[in-house]
Automatic annotation (TrEMBL):
This is HTH cro/C1-type domain-containing protein. GO terms for molecular function: DNA binding. It comes from Legionella hackeliae. Gene3D superfamilies: lambda repressor-like DNA-binding domains.
Amino acid sequence: MKIFAEFALLNSLLSMRQQAGLTQNKLAERMGTLKVTFLD
């Protein structure tokens, strides 16, 4: 079950990172600046 726990942790980190990236894109659009994402 250790592998599953590590996968769940990685999955939650990626999800949080994706949500943060989307929020950052929305802010960038409002301010008219370049979009910065961490998903590259």
